[in-house]
Amino acid sequence: MSVSKAEIVIISFNCLEHLKNCIKSIKETSEIKITVVDNCSTDGTIEYLKSEDGVNYRLNDLNQGYGAAANQVLLNSDSQFYIVSNADVIYQEGAIDSLIKLISENTKIGVCGLQQIYPDGSWQRSYGDLPSYRLAIKDLLFVTILERIIRKKNWPNKLDDEIIEVEYIDGAVFCISKVAVELTMGFDKDYFFYTEEADLCKRVKEFGLKIVFTPHPRAIHLRGGSSGGNIISKSAADMLVNSKILYCKKHLDRGERNFFIRVEYLHNLIMKNIWGVISMLKPNSNEVKSKIEYYKLIVSSWKKGVKEIR
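The chain above was modelled as a monomer; its predicted structure follows.
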């Protein structure tokens, strides 16, 4: 199937240069319809969109969050397939058309995603596990971290060489069918930023549709560019953790929710202490300092969650 019945929806907020590069890569690699939903940018994005040919746009008067912005198109467009995209993504040749082909030729697929990579070509996490007893235990036993290390060290190879069914697709490149949108009514607007894609995948699966990852088409994801590039901040840490807690409240029973929150707090506390030990060996490492700062903020946010369930 061609991309004539498909649409790529880019959510932007004060990331003009990323947005320009994203749109350029789309135009160079596909003929898909492009729509940008801007959440009240003040960096020249609006002027750029008004001057750029071949780009549809919606301009919001305030920042409504990622999912709510995406819904403005998903729930009001006649397209049959959508790729919801961060602005800090650069699409490689064939990536967009391959995703649309995969989802359009498999009616049992509700959501699919591709392999994301860093600008240097290295592996990047592109899918994951939903919050649950299973994920909490994997995190506590460091299985999740080990899985990522193994994939990153050994990529590209047969570890990620097959189309597989997964629990959720990372929201930076999120391909979804109109059928899945209509069944779920799109993203839950209660999530402002983070975890909205996990929530939507959970609900798509409940309707019997598959969530699928394909390793062959790829896209460069700068990661952090769509949120100002500063993930190590108190507000970002609180937003991330609170979104996961919100997911737990919506989808897990009390026992599983309390277990997950307590284990995530413990896991991140252990990680903070591990990086503290590493800092003694590498006292001048900026990377180590950043990790310590990150885990301090994340631990603080999870601690608030633990206090709420007492």
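The chain has a mean pLDDT of 93.
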